[in-house]
Specification:
The chain is of the alpha/beta class. The protein contains six helices and 14 strands. The strands form three sheets. A six-stranded mixed β-sheet has the order 2-1-3-4-14-13, with helices on both faces. Strands 6-5-7-10 form a four-stranded mixed β-sheet. Helix 1 (about 35-45) links the parallel strand 1 (about 20-25) and strand 2. Helix 1 packs across helix 5. The model is unreliable at about 1-15 (pLDDT under 50). The chain binds glutamine. Glutamine binds next to helix 2 and strand 9.
């Protein structure tokens, strides 16, 4: 791990927020695009600011304490692994996750994880159930996988639109229920279904997106937004970091998506 980037004016220790408690769901099965990179970004950006970081995981058969964590992360997965996790997610973690989301914890699902946060993922005759935190349904339809560089415009707060850039690779097409807010609008790429121009879904602090593994390395502003949300503070309260390399990474991902 490289040395921390320089922090600019970290807050006095007395004003530091409490530690960020992160729980990775099925990190061994749902990590198809090295999703742990997203967790490392969260950890580093906390450490560089002197904010404590506690990472735990919850795997197959492990009950989830919804009160014990501020941010839950579930990454991408193969259809086969998603099947394994889906039943377990409902049996041992659904109640905890719903309770956590209801009290404002952040729940972030990426790709296969996003699909499992919805109601269902249908593959032919087979229907994989989801936890229903987001009002979305995913269907594996005929047609090519939706693969490529992607950029979306998101408006998370009232501070105007911003861009998330990344990569997508999914066979499932995701459809939003009436009233379900998308995460953003596709600027380039396929998004939820390749047609609607919508990408991801968001209900309060529960977010699903098809932007993959390096989502947070490529979009550190979003990592900070998640950290702040999970800690119940404003992103502006986080000490600024020297993000020269991170900004270049973001611009490079945008260029790849032609945005
Ligand atoms: N298995 C799912 C799909 O193909 C999700 C894939 C992924 O997480 N990359 O749609």
């Amino acid at each position: 791990m490289p040395e921390p980037a320089a922090t600019i004016g970290p807050p006095a220790s007395s004003t530091l927020p409490r530690p960020l408690r992160v729980c990775a769901l099925y990190p061994d099965l749902m990590n198809i695009y090295a999703d742990r990179g997203n967790l490392i970004v969260l950890e580093r950006r906390c450490a560089w600011r002197g904010i404590g970081f506690q990472l735990s995981s919850s795997g197959l058969g492990e009950r989830l304490d919804g009160d014990a964590h501020d941010l839950f992360y579930i990454g991408g997965g193969q259809d086969r692994d998603q099947r394994l996790c889906a039943r377990d997610l409902i049996d041992t973690k659904r109640d905890g996750l719903h309770a956590a989301a209801a009290r404002g914890a952040v729940v972030l699902g990426v790709c296969g994880g996003y699909q499992l946060l919805g109601h269902s993922y249908t593959l032919g005759e087979d229907q994989i159930p989801g936890v229903g935190l987001l009002d979305v349904r995913t269907v594996r339809e005929d047609g090519p996988r939706l693969i490529g560089n992607v950029a979306i415009e998101v408006s998370l707060d009232d501070d105007g639109p911003r861009v998330l850039a990344g990569f997508e690779n999914h066979g499932g097409r995701t459809y939003l229920g009436d009233g379900q807010r998308p995460l953003g609008r596709v600027l380039h790429g396929h998004g939820n279904d390749g047609r609607s121009g919508l990408e991801g879904a968001r209900s309060a602090n529960t977010i699903g997106t098809y932007l993959h593994g390096p989502l947070l390395p490529k979009n550190v502003w979003f990592a900070d937004w998640l950290i702040a949300r999970a800690l119940g503070i404003d992103a502006g309260e986080l000490a600024p970091l020297d993000d020269a390399i991170e900004r270049e990474t973001h611009l490079s991902a945008r260029r790849a998506a032609g945005v």
